[in-house]
Amino acid sequence: MLIIGIAGGTGSGKTTVVRKIVESLPEGSVAIIPQDSYYNDQSELPLAVRKLTNFDHPDAFEWPLLAHQIEELKAGRAIEQPTYSYITCTRLPETIHVEPRDVIIVEGIMTLYDKSLRDQMDLKIYVDAEPDERLLRVIVRDIAERGHPLEMLISKYRNVLKPMHDEFIEPTKQFADIIIPNGGDNARAIAMMQLYILSALKEQRLARAER
């Protein structure tokens, strides 16, 4: 089993990189664990308080649960992945059953932030993009998918996204084994990463066969 962590700022192109990894591997060989599923359960708090959650701060995540569930998958045991609602700003009662796979991808803005999680990874990737490009992607996405007004998005970027990125996300670049500039548009970097993953899986299979 190969545990891969993929981090990077909002709008950096993480989703595209994940998709291209999955496309390069045999069908059914990958399980994707979104970090966003592990936001803290806040069901005991009033909705007005929950709506003030800063989703770009490390304290918003339940790190021990995420690290534990990756440990379980690595040990060959299935997990019940939590689900989260941005509408109610808390965890939902429904879970997603996830079976162990040859490749486990943990993806999110701060995937490389927590040491206990990071230490379990065989490959750590940071997807990078220029701040202006990330801002444009966030604006286009949130206007199209969520109907957010432009003024609100600009304010959110200045007051939340940018300061949180500079303080908590950008510094995790130092822990990456691979940095992919220009996100999903960097075809050469992605091709090299795909070859590395395929080679690592082949080595693991050979090692198992020799035991």
Task: Kindly describe this structure.
The chain is of the alpha/beta class and 211 residues long. Helix content is 43%, strand content 19%. It has a 5-stranded parallel beta sheet with strand order 2-5-1-6-7, sandwiched between helices. It has a two-stranded antiparallel sheet with strand order 3-4. Helix 5 packs across helix 6 (150-169). The protein is globular. The mean pLDDT is 89.
Going across the biggest sheet, name each strand in turn.
2-5-1-6-7
Mean pLDDT: 89
Please bin the fraction of helical residues: 40-55%
Kindly report how far apart the N and C termini lie. Answer: 16 Å
Q: What characteristic shape results from the CA principal axes?
A: globular
- Helix and strand succession? EHEHHEEEHEHHEH
Quaternary structure annotation = single chain
Main sheet?
5 strands, parallel
